[in-house]
Amino acid sequence: MSAVFITGSSSGIGRATAQLFQARGWTVFATMRNPDDAGLLADLDQVHVLPLDVTNPASVSQAVSNALAISAIDVLVNNAGYGAYGPLECTPRKGIESLFQTNLLGLIDVTRAVIPDMRTRGSGTIINVSSMGGHIAWPLGSLYHASKFAVEGLSEALLFELEALGIAIKVVQPGRVATDFNGRSVDINVDPSLTEYQPVIQALMASSSKDNYRTDPEVPAQVIYTAATDGTTRFRYVSGDDAIEGLKRRRETPDAEHFSRIRAEFGLA
Ligand SMILES: NC(=O)c1ccc[n+]([C@@H]2O[C@H](COP(=O)([O-])OP(=O)(O)OC[C@H]3O[C@@H](n4cnc5c(N)ncnc54)[C@H](OP(=O)(O)O)[C@@H]3O)[C@@H](O)[C@H]2O)c1
Predict the structure, then answer these.
(1) Could you tell me the pTM of the whole model?
(2) Which CATH number fits domain 3-194+214-249: 3.90.1150.10, 3.40.50.720, 1.10.579.10, 3.90.1720.10?
(3) Contacts of residue 45, Cβ cutoff 8 Å, sequence gap at least 6
């Protein structure tokens, strides 16, 4: 039986991914900051709920060694992450550090913790949950996009570093997904006294409306499952019609035209 280790399994895409792998007969290490948030996962066969805060290196190594004591890890899904939005000058240094500790350093630490066993066995797949926002940046999302662009660059370089060891690395780019991401998983920093930013803040709020986040988390979960099991060397997987269309258009559009479109969308033209 194959085993998958998933970060951020308490909700959204991570939880849906844990449920899907379990339903397909996998051993699942459903890791989360607070195991009390496991809900139904706690009662499922072959699901091991493990505490893991990706920002805490001791917690990372403990969770990985707890999992390895039960089974080799065939697939790692680096899913834990959150968003930070607002003018760069309004975001406190602590908020910046916290975002990169979770979205980038946490992902790096978990990856570094699983590589040695995969290297010894000469096999394994690492799937990094990036975003459509790992290739396209929107105003006021500088930090979130920086973290996801970084995940893309890190993954692309690791592809070459790890393939000779028999370890595959893949990136999944979801579009907008109906999860808690825009609720509790977002850190918004604005200063109402800086009136210069108010129009673009209003435009961002409008585009973040729940109506624009309709894709069920089962959709990226299925794409992650495909990435884990398709037996190909494909690197990038896009999830959701908005991401498929948006990323295709971005690839085909020169920068100047693309930037004009974003400016128009956010009333910056
Ligand atoms: N929703 C979207 O539209 C969308 C689009 C593209 C990409 N993504 C990406 O998809 C991933 C999952 O997001 P989601 O939409 O499923 O949002 P979500 O439902 O809010 O889930 C985020 C998960 O990350 C976990 N997490 C946050 N900080 C953590 C930490 N320090 N250690 C361990 N886990 C931590 C959360 O755990 P707690 O329960 O403890 O907070 C939660 O399980 C993220 O990487 C996000 O960037 C989301």
Answers:
(1) 0.97
(2) 3.40.50.720
(3) 22
